[in-house]
Amino acid sequence: GDRLPASETMAIRVLTIPEILVYIIENNIAETNDLECTGARQTRIMKAQDTPWPYMLVCKAWFKILSSTPSLWKTFFVFCDGRYSEISHLPGMFELCLRYSKNLPLTLYISVTFSTAIKKDDAKSHALFMNLLSRVYEVQHRWGDVRLFMECSGYHVRLITGQTRNPKDLYLDINDATKLKKLSIDMPGDLLQHFANGNVLN
User: Fold this and answer.
1) Which of these, 33, 81, 123, 169, could form a disulfide with 159 (CB 3.0-4.6 Å)?
2) Distances from the Cα of 35 to the Cαs of 77, 114, 161, in angstroms?
3) Each residue's pLDDT tens digit, 75-119
């Protein structure tokens, strides 16, 4: 078959050098500074293209390099109205970030607003976010820069009773969160009825 020009062959080889590939990918996925400019009521959902995942499918060499570079996976974010439909992938994506980021401190920006007009049909998405919140608290020993905002009411909580995975206490132990650098938590009192201990700080 036809051979690639020497220049193209060299370019391919260069892109299998970990330092170069990682630098390129870092400049093509979400950055913390960019996330800080996202307003609480804006819609911005983390998708595959915000992670190294699509690039990992290019070839085995890239998969090996990117899956073994924890710094590319330490950020997770979601900004949306609670009734936004394209959210089913979020729990799986969060687990992917946890796995590949190894033990690095996590940057977590989660902002969800449920309007007072929530309907029974919205219970599934509400339960998803409550489960996600519970999971986030389970890994507080890895929190680095964390911003959590959720707006809803006690009525919403009653809609999802029995639909969530064994809700965990919203209990933050500073002694356990040894990697924590920044923290902002804003949740309504009604929401905390869903947890045995809500917004408890030790």
Assistant:
1) 123
2) 8, 21, 32
3) 999 887 766 667 889 999 999 999 999 999 999 998 887 766 656
Most confident of the ranges 4-8, 136-140, 183-187: 136-140
Q: Is it the case that residue 168 has pLDDT exceeding 70?
A: no
For the purposes of burial, counting CB atoms within 10 Å of the CB of 155, is it exposed (0-12), middle (13-18) or buried (19 or more)? Answer: exposed
- Please state, in angstroms and rounded to a whole number, the distance separating the CA atoms of residues 75 and 120: 32
Higher-pLDDT residue of 71 and 41 is 71
**What are the respective helix, strand and coil percentages of the chain, to the nearest 5?**
45, 15, 40
8 Å CB contact between 133 and 160: no
Residue 121 main-chain phi, psi, to 5 deg: -65, -20
CA 199 to CA 3: how far, in whole Å? 63
Q: Which of 174, 183, 178, 125 is nearest to 152 (CA)?
A: 125
